[in-house]
Amino acid sequence: MENTIAIIGGGVAGMQAALTLKELGMRPVILEREERLGGKLNTWDRLFPTWTPAREVLDPLLEAVRGAGIEVRLGAAVEGVSPDGRGVTLAGGERLAAEAVVVASGFDLFDARLKEEYGYGIYDNVITSADLETMFREKRVLTADGRVPRRVAILHCVGSRDEKVKQNHCSRVCCITGVKQAMEIRELYPECEVFNFYMDMRMFGPGYEEIYRQSQEEYKVVHIRGRISEVSPTLDGRLQMKTEDTLIGRPMKMEADMLVLLVGMCPARSNRSLAVSGNLSLGDSGFFAAADAFRGNTRCGENGRIFFAGTATAPKNVGESLNEGTAAAWQAYRSVKGGASW
Amino acid sequence: MVDWGYTINKPRAIAYDANDHTWENALQEAVPVLRSCIGCGNCTATCTAGNFVPFNIRKLQTLVRRGEYAGLRKELDKCMLCGKCRLVCPRGINTRKMIVTLKRLLAQPVAAGIPVAPGAASTAGQR
């Protein structure tokens, strides 16, 4: 159908792209694999750096998508993209013709079980940052046997910057997430000690460094520079962690009631099939490679009618993903309607 | 000469420009991936020896890479070559090869065409 733009993924980037395209008079169709729109944000509690409830970002978007009468297809997994950008193929073989495609297919969370030495899925009180968000939504963070933890350790870079699990990239947002979560635990249980184990603190966004400092000064979160090498259970059911306190230069052991693994952002599993079918390039880490890192970071180098938005190309925060939704939508619009190219 | 009981402390600063970097270069030639160390400390955290005696392989290789070789031999003798550090390195550095290379340089510096680094063969500890 004329002016149809297929949008792969109904997370924040996909919804923002759809809203922009609708405003430009196009016919965006959101293809969402899950049974609801919103993507990963559905499971998140509050967002850095402002403690804004994720719902306050998500709900207005969902309402706008509904209000604009944007076509949404749920449970619609996309298996292939036409190399010319003129449509997509859904699971089951159905083909949807379009004039351009916006790939906003997002990321997968790193599967923490792959880092066996941390014992996720083996020890009860080793959880992921995503599990912790679920607990925050329920307003209680308890150990497996229902106790308030006296000490929580938070480990940065699980499934990031790690050649052993083929995740060489930095996931960017975990540092600030770890600081946020440490502070939230301290807010919830002021008696509970919180330790963050990090290699580098990458506070890249506005207000992030300030929060890091606040975590030290006001929240008394302790940051230890060392990556945890292994975790084992103690006789009394706690966890013992080993690391090196690299700023002192000595090995360190510490017990905690709970260990939170800050799981990184991995390229979505669907990237490969989309890349193969659409002749799209993947970067070293498996995210889509955009045309270039400056003026072309939402464009596809191979095809003038395929565009990227959000974490399909690299780990990003919510604000950046939303901005790319708008950028990709404009470029998709231009590719169909012509006009000045920037 | 009267001994007044005063001494002059050697400066503790790493005199990077004054240091001999021959070994550092030879080591990095043999184990280029060493350059990718991000100092996470996993090697030392998991080190069998380092958990009992003062031995810190992360710090040791950093010192070599700054041209600081004092007491290297004594330090390296503590390593049992168990290889646990290699298993945990997130940058995939072949830490055993790094240690074996250092030992070879120490054992046969002349055969390797490398001048004996000042202080390296000394059994005095690291500063």
Task: Explain how this protein is built.
The complex is a heterodimer of chains A (342) and B (127). Chain A is of the alpha/beta class. Chain A is built from seven helices and 20 strands. Chain A is 26% helix and 26% strand. Chain A is elongated, with a radius of gyration of 21 Å. By secondary structure, chain B is mostly helical. Chain B has six helices and no strands. Chain B is globular, with a radius of gyration of 16 Å. In chain B, 35% of the residues are buried. The mean pLDDT of chain B is 84.
Main beta sheet of chain B, described?
A: none
| CATH topology value of the largest domain in chain A | FAD/NAD(P)-binding domain
Listing every helix as H and every strand as E from the N terminus to the C terminus, the arrangement of chain B reads HHHHHH
Overall morphology of chain B: globular
How many domains in all of chain A? 2
Beta-strand share of residues of chain B: under 5%
Summarize the helix and strand pattern of chain A as letters.
Answer: EHEEEHEEEEEEEHEHEHEEEEEEHEH
Over the alpha carbons, how many angstroms does the gyration radius of chain A reach? 21 Å
Neighbour order of strands in the largest sheet of chain A = 5-2-1-9-20
Number of strands of chain A: 20
The shape of chain A is elongated
Q: Which two chains share the most extensive interface?
A: A-B, 23 and 21 residues
Strand content of chain A: 25-35%
What structural category do the secondary elements of chain B indicate? mainly alpha
Number of strands of chain B: 0
**What is the CATH architecture assignment of the largest domain in chain A?**
3-Layer(bba) Sandwich
| Gyration radius over CA of chain B | 16 Å
Number of helices of chain A: 7
Oligomeric state of this protein: heterodimer
Largest sheet descriptor of chain A: 5 strands, parallel
Uncertain spans of chain B: none
